[in-house]
Amino acid sequence: MRFDSGRVCLDLVATFAPHEGIPDGDELRLWLAGAGLVPDRTPLARVGADWAASFRALRADVETLVRAELSGSEPDEGALARVNALAAGPPPGLCAVRDQEGHLVRELCGGVECGALLAAVARDAVELLTDPGDRALLRACAGDGCTRVYLDTSRGHRRRWCSSELCGNRERVARHRRRLLASGSR
Fold it and tell me: pLDDT class for 57, splitting at 50, 70, 90?
């Protein structure tokens, strides 16, 4: 799993391609921890297939809205209404507690609820889609076959790939091969 899109809602959108990243509760647990939505050591015993299905539905709605923004088209009203409804829910509460060594660490107060975690991601999507500065930084990866969307926070805002190490490197290697073939070298 990668968490380099620039926003948690875009990282959720990225879990779909090239394969389903959250097919079940176990993978969702990993994504929630990796995205920083739940602090380390947070027990996530109740995360199941119903949670995964809810996050996949939110992912589809966020992707629909982000793609509409990128293409300059009107947002899908149904997707917008569902994201707004989720964003209106209460986010998870954070508490500072002492760990075994006596240091303060973050914990979720009152347990982990699916609706609260969905609200956090939906709220991130609402913030992204309503912030003119962030909307202006939305980009679709130019990598061949890549469907990721990211925020271009590079200096000069000319970034072309979701990841220079992955998609950018693939593109540079392909360009090099094309030049070699065109020159007749191997």
Answer: very high
